[in-house]
Automatic annotation (TrEMBL):
It comes from Octodon degus (Degu). GO terms for cellular component: membrane; mitochondrion. Belongs to the peroxisomal membrane protein PXMP2/4 family. The keyword Cell cycle does not apply. This is Mitochondrial inner membrane protein Mpv17. It is a multi-pass membrane protein.
Length: 150
């Protein structure tokens, strides 16, 4: 999460080192350690219990449940959590969620279904979070940029 924010600020937003918002990066690091990692890691365990197996059909079912149920809920929690940590009022946070959520969810669907299908079919459960986090560096750059747009 922190690396994603660093990439967002330096390569996407082109802030430069003088304008880099260190607090924002640390907020994203804390979100990664305290929210994203535990929630996603726990979700993979639940998902593997709900749909045991590693066949192509099992992987497809896991991906559909992950992207149809988990991803929309996760983004719906993540974006307002960032807004709250950045001091947005409830009203501003709600307006920002209404504005940003549809685009974030659609963008999610461009990347994650293919990644998750491969992840659920090819990767053992105890490595899935690590594989996702490698891809997530790019995704987290996008999420950080999207979550911090005013």
């Amino acid at each position: 999460m922190g690396l994603g924010d660093l990439i967002s600020q330096q390569l996407v937003e082109r802030r430069g080192l003088q304008e880099h918002q260190t607090r924002r990066t640390w907020t994203m690091v804390c979100l990664g350690c305290g929210f994203v990692g535990p929630v996603v890691g726990g979700w993979y365990k639940v998902l593997d219990r709900l749909i045991p197996g590693t066949t192509k059909l099992d992987a497809l079912k896991k991906m559909l449940l992950d992207q149809g149920a988990f991803a929309p809920c996760f983004l719906g929690c993540f974006l307002p959590l960032v807004g709250t940590l950045n001091g947005l009022s409830a009203q501003d946070n709600w307006a920002k969620l209404q504005r940003d959520y549809p685009d974030a969810l659609i963008t999610n669907y461009y990347l994650w279904p293919a990644v998750q299908l491969a992840n659920f079919y090819l990767v053992p459960l105890h490595y899935r979070l690590a594989v996702v986090q490698c891809v997530a560096v790019i995704w987290n750059s996008y999420l950080s940029w999207k979550a911090h747009q005013l």
